[in-house]
Amino acid sequence: LENGTGVATTNTGTQISINEALKMAEGTHPVIAVLDGDGMPLYLQRSRRTANRAQRLALIARDKGCTRPGCEQPASMCAAHHVNDWAKGGPTDINNLTLACDHCHALINDGPDGWKTVVMGKDSPHRGRTGWIAPKSVDPTGTPRVNDRHHVGQSIATAIDSSCRKWRSRAA
Ligand SMILES: [Zn+2]
Questions:
Q1: 127 in a domain, yes or no?
Q2: Which helix (H) or strand (E) holds 131?
Q3: Residue 20 is assigned to a structural domain of this protein
Q4: In DSSP terms, which residues pair with 7 in a beta bridge?
Q5: Which tens digits make up the pLDDT trace of 78-122?
Q6: 79: CA distance to ligand 1 center in Å?
Q7: How far apart are the C-alpha atoms of 133 and 80, rounded to whole Å?
Q8: Residue 31 burial (C-beta neighbours within 10 Å; 0-12, 13-18, 19+)
Q9: Which of 22, 33, 37, 59 is most solvent-facing, going by the fewest CB within 10 Å?
Q10: Pairwise CA distance, residues 33 & 36, whole Å
Q11: CA–CA distance, 101 with 127 (Å, rounded to integer)
């Protein structure tokens, strides 16, 4: 930001220069999203069914778009979805919310053809992100999967890190 270099990603997924982003931001109230080392928002709010403004901004920063594997819909086309259903007691908490476009959101149900969502556990390389479990007709293993379409940089960094570890362990 200080050097006016690099790119910013808008909520439609468009990449623009930092200078363009600063021009667009003139006259607005900037919000800083604080994320931990895994890209998880630290600032949480709860108490009502619909996500509040801070939660929506945190979801845009964290998820960047629809979280169903393979879906390319940007954040601007998504609503906040309760990973653990609100009707079943799921809280409106940032770690229980995720972005889902209308099409993908409509696929979630308890029927045999319904998709399910879960928060990826501590042992997962995608800890804290939303895993989608396809119906048995699509994936008989029932393995929760994340959407990497909006996290390409993160995937590349993970692959490089993994390759470096393998190389180091061979060299040792
Ligand atoms: Zn979607």
A1: yes
A2: strand 130-133
A3: no
A4: 17
A5: 999 999 988 888 888 888 999 999 999 999 999 999 999 999 998
A6: 10
A7: 18
A8: exposed
A9: 37
A10: 10
A11: 22
Ligand 1 centroid to 89 CA: how many Å?
24
Residue 9 lies in a domain: no
Tell whether 24 is covered by a domain. no
Question: Which letter does DSSP use for residue 67 in this model?
Answer: -
Q: In what helix (H) or strand (E) does residue 16 lie, and over which residues does it extend? A: strand 15-17
Domain count, the chain: 1
Distances (CA, A) of 166 to 162, 163, 171: 6, 5, 9
Question: How much distance in Å is there from the Cα of 156 to the middle of ligand 1?
Answer: 22
What is the per-residue pLDDT for 73? Answer: 96
Instruction: Kindly list the distances between the CA atom of residue 118 and the CA atoms of 12, 67, 79, 130, in Å, as whole numbers in the listed order.
Output: 25, 11, 17, 6
Give the angle 102-106-112 at the CA atoms, nearest 5°. Answer: 160
Partnered with residue 74 across adjacent β-strands are 65
CA of 35 relative to ligand 1 center, distance in Å: 24
Range of the domain at 40: 31-171
